[in-house]
Amino acid sequence: MDSKEIQELLKLVNRLELAEFKYKQGEVEFSVKTKYYHRRSVDYGPAMGTQTVTSHIPQSTSASQPTSPVKTNVEPDGNGNGPAGVATKDNLIEVRSPIVGTFYRSSSPDKPVFVKPGDPIEVGSVLCIIEAMKLFNEIESEVAGKIVKIMVEDASPVEYDQVLFLVDPNG
């Protein structure tokens, strides 16, 4: 990867307003934290404690295929008790959107949905795709459990930090 490609990649990161970007291809690896990166503690309501966005840009991009996994990460509460600030009053975990874009439940209209209510999920399970500026970002779960509710309609716009799914960690 030459410096011009790195500059183009950094421009894309800036345009997408990503908080954090990590790149690894072969022996080339780097990480960038932008002005949008910050840790925030939440002492109001059921919002997530900390989120980061991790994208992996492939060598070629196809508009019909998901290409950039994006993870929402939650940090332990400091006492080793698992995610902090993510449980609702019903002890459900909210999976929130790490980026602004368009929410899709499947990789294409003719493919089955990634998850539906009642489905068990594992850490790393693909939950949905969010398209942002022609990049299709797979949203992976950071918690294991059971999908209780999908909060967003297919093919609808989503905002940063919007609740996408409710997950029962005991399911």
Structural summary, described in words:
With 171 residues, the protein is mainly beta. It has a single domain (3-168), classed as Beta Barrel (OB fold (Dihydrolipoamide Acetyltransferase, E2P)). It is 8% helix and 32% strand. It has one helix at 3-15, and strands at 20-25, 28-33, 68-71, 93-96, 101-104, 120-121, 126-132, 135-140, 145-150, 156-158, 163-168. The longest helix has 13 residues, at 3-15. The chain starts with a helix and ends with a strand. Mean pLDDT is 74; it is low at 39-85.
CATH fold assignment:
OB fold (Dihydrolipoamide Acetyltransferase, E2P)
Instruction: Tell the overall outline.
Output: elongated
Can you say what the CATH homologous superfamily is? RNA polymerase II/Efflux pump adaptor protein, barrel-sandwich hybrid domain
Q: Please mark out the parts with pLDDT under 50 across 5 or more consecutive residues, or reply none.
A: 39-85
**Largest sheet at a glance?**
5 strands, mixed
Strand order of the largest sheet: 3-8-7-5-10
Task: Please report the total strand number as a whole number.
Answer: 11
- CATH level-two architecture: Beta Barrel
Class, according to the CATH hierarchy? Mainly Beta
Helical content stands at under 10%
Rounded mean pLDDT is 74
Distance between the termini: 44 Å
Label the structural class.
Answer: mainly beta
List keywords for this structure.
171 residues, mainly beta, OB fold (Dihydrolipoamide Acetyltransferase, E2P), 5-stranded mixed β-sheet
